[in-house]
Amino acid sequence: MRMDVKDIIERRSRKAFSKDEYQLIKQLNRVTEVHNVDNITRTHAYRDFFKVYPTMEWALLASMVSRNAGWSMTDLKTEPIYRCLSDSYIQLLFHAYERPNWLIFHDAYPQLLLYKASLQWKRPLFDLLKAFNVSVFMEYEWERFWKTGDVRRLTYALIINEQHVIEAPFVKHSYYAQAVFDRVLFFLVDHLRLNAVVCPDFSGALYGFPVTGFQDVRQRIELGKKLHTLLFHHPESKAIQAFALETDHTGSRYDYERYHGASPAKNIPLREAFNVVSHRRLKPRDWFNGNTAPDWFLPPDIGKVELSKWYRRKRARLTRLGTLLSALIGK
Predict the structure, then answer these.
(1) 1 assigned to some structural domain
(2) Which region, left, alpha or beta, applies to residue 98 given φ > 0 means left and ψ of -120 to 50 means alpha?
(3) 194 within a domain of the structure (yes/no)
């Protein structure tokens, strides 16, 4: 299916910013930079934006996914994973979580801020997305949302866009492809379904979906749509939202394992596990070529969402795997 964005492309080529618009762009860049320091600031920024603008359902979804990235980062410094890996490989994997987390925020948060500014200015300002190197795909979708108010469509569009944003600079980047995705450990984690996006509630129950086929952008998009359905269109949505909105993110799985009934993980906050790192993003090429996949905007089939038993089995598997690998490498 082809999306007609010719008018937006033509308008972008002619767009010159007014003085007020230029000042707004500078301000939004500063705000984005302040909140894009680390996984903690990003997670809270997404959540806090949703609290004020609950129409922006993607923001809460992004906050929950960002929580999971932070928990996975801290896992690298806790048992049994820490015993299995060299210090250099732990740092590499930390960057493999941190880099896409940063890239997505760098692209998406100015979009949220422009929505806020559009409400304040009482007119759509999405032609300013050009200044943030945001894809023409999202300019089309934001203008469509401004006219229709279709929240689900906008949420899906943001999921689609951000997964394409990380495709070239991270997933397909030769360095990460060789250093992370072609390694035996990544194959084992993917094949054994040891990784998942977990959505807790205060009762100790865990919901979510295993992460498999991460290198396939279509599967990442489907995962995002499933998570959105779980967060907003499922019987457990309100309980999961309550946890997400009321629980500050530390990066430690203790955030939710204290309610889970099993022995909770050691409480190691992310900022004690890893130092803040700096990033640089070269001006990206627009990923969108005008073609949309037939299933991009279709609702997903989410299937089973309860993960409590799976999580306990995963912890046991990781413990056994950790004992085996630590014996082999002598760490």
Answers:
(1) no
(2) alpha
(3) yes
